[in-house]
């Protein structure tokens, strides 16, 4: 059995991975002309959330950890902004948008709690 790293046990990391999967699923049907536009951007910003969580958890000081949690939160708000734009451009339906937005809100809540725990 493979070793489980600390970040893999975090609910915020697990939920952010679920968000990435949902984003990838919902953007599959975006127009081909958006492949290198909003599709790529929203996927990259969503990927940045669990990536920064995992990197931050590996840091030694709470200050360094909190820095990466802040970056993860910034990427999450970028993802939300792109979801809003995608909905406004009718690139995604209301149900997909609502599902993604709910996951963003859950991850946001958990990230805020993680950030509070990292403050001295």
TrEMBL record:
Give the transmembrane ranges.
none
Q: What is the recorded name of this protein?
A: S23 ribosomal protein
Annotated Gene Ontology cellular components are: ribosome
Alphabetized, the UniProt keywords read: Ribonucleoprotein, Ribosomal protein
Which Gene3D superfamilies would you find in this protein's record?
23S rRNA-intervening sequence
Query: Has the keyword Ribosomal protein been applied to this entry?
Result: yes
Which species does the entry assign this protein to? Haliscomenobacter hydrossis (strain ATCC 27775 / DSM 1100 / LMG 10767 / O)
Q: Pfam families attached here?
A: 23S_rRNA_IVP
């Amino acid at each position: 059995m493979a070793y489980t790293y600390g970040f893999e046990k975090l609910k915020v990391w697990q939920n952010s991975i679920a968000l990435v999967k949902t984003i990838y699923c919902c953007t599959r049907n975006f127009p081909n002309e958006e492949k290198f536009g909003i599709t790529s951007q929203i996927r990259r910003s969503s990927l940045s959330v669990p990536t920064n969580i995992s990197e931050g958890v590996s840091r030694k000081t709470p200050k360094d950890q909190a820095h990466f949690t802040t970056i993860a939160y910034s990427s999450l708000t970028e993802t939300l902004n792109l979801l809003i734009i995608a909905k406004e451009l009718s690139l995604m339906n209301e149900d997909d948008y609502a599902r993604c937005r709910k996951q963003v809100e859950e991850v946001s809540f958990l990230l805020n709690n993680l950030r509070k725990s990292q403050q001295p």
